[in-house]
Amino acid sequence: MNKEVLILGIESTCDETSAALLRGGRELVTNVIYSQIEEHKKYHGVVPELASRAHAAKIATVVAEALGDSPLDYVAFASGPGLPGGLVVGRVAAETLAQLKRVPLIGVNHLEGHLFACDFEGNEVKNRLQFPLVALVVSGGHTELWYVKGYGNYKVLGRTRDDAAGEAFDKVAKLLGLAYPGGPQVSKQALAGRRDAIAFPRPLLPGTWDFSFSGIKTAVSYYLRDHQPVNVPDVCASFEQAMVETLVTKTLQAARKYKVKHIAVGGGVAANTLLREQMQAQAAQAGIETHFVDRKLSSDNAAMIALAAYKKLEYAKRTGSSLRADITIDPNKKVRSWGK
Ligand code: KG4
Ligand code: ZN
């Protein structure tokens, strides 16, 4: 493939409006991110209507800033999963630009983006991921465990049945009166607390690869109801330990079951230091290498969309598959793979 191919990626699935330019599938030229955190802060979570309006207000300038006066070969956008309003804004911006510039459009799965974000080292693509691997995609909207043989060949092993892990962090932060987004705030408080102070549940759901975090959140709310005044650092440390232990245990169980030597972790919660330390340490004991996304690209961004689009392009050239198809993992099917 032409090594200097230029792809403009657009991301607008949740509360970041972002556009990025990727050259030759290896060099991130720009990655402009407008974060809506200030809009959503006072509600302690993403308000879909406000998110749609903010995407609509920012998308044109974000795209213009990322593209500058560069030429362009493809436009890529995150076609789902995400909030409907944001998805529409991203799609319309991408289709308009593609038609104006007369270049093809590539639809990319947002979660695939989080996974392939692990390939970046700074602004360079290093292809760090080695297959087969087990992937944990863990963010404010999603918590999923996949078995991955390569680009385009995924098996969704399990996903959360209720709250995403990041959502649980955000909700617990709200219960404690901490700011949004809750993950970093809870982690900060946890540094001064004892991880074994309170025995919050570890919902392992044996026999499935699914997650369920609403019970931990409810256990925290009952604890707060019954133990005022509480030691906030102890609550945060014990909650964080319960969350991390659950994520690490299930990911490692899957890695052993599928006999992989590599684990990849992407998504906003992948920035969590305790998760990084405990996953790394326990995987290493089992002879498994862990690849965490760079913290700078853990939250939503268009660099990961542009890179996933580049992978899709390579894959399409190899297999003759479609670029336009909106590949969204079917929520009604446990297992979905394509490419074989
Ligand atoms: O990937 P992301 O930007 O958005 C979605 O695609 O959902 O993830 C945002 C989520 C928020 O819920 C935030 O609280 C969480 O990631 N998060 C963290 C940390 N940093 C961000 N959770 C735990 N520990 C962190 N250090
Ligand atoms: Zn995301």
Q: Can you tell me about this structure?
A:
The chain has ten helices and twelve strands. With 340 residues, the protein is of the alpha/beta class. Strands 3-2-1-4-5 form a five-stranded mixed sheet, sandwiched between helices. The chain has a five-stranded mixed sheet with strand order 10-9-8-11-12, with helices on both faces. Helix 6 packs across helix 8. The longest helix has 26 residues. It is globular and about 60 Å long. The C terminus is likely disordered. It binds 5'-O-[(R)-(carboxyoxy)(hydroxy)phosphoryl]adenosine (KG4) and zinc ion. Zinc ion binds next to helix 4.
| Percent strand | 15-25%
Helix content: 40-55%
The number of helices is 10
- Overall pLDDT: 92
Order of helices and strands: EEEHHEHEHEEEEEHHHHEHEH
Give the neighbour order of strands across the main sheet. Answer: 3-2-1-4-5
Global Rg: 20 Å
Determine the structural class based on helices, strands and strand pairing: alpha/beta
Principal-axes shape call: globular
Poorly predicted ranges (pLDDT <50, ≥5 residues)?
Answer: 325-340
Distance between the termini: 21 Å
The biggest sheet, with number of strands, parallel, antiparallel or mixed sense and barrel status, is: 5 strands, mixed
Report the count of strand segments: 12
Which small-molecule species are bound to the chains here? 5'-O-[(R)-(carboxyoxy)(hydroxy)phosphoryl]adenosine, zinc ion
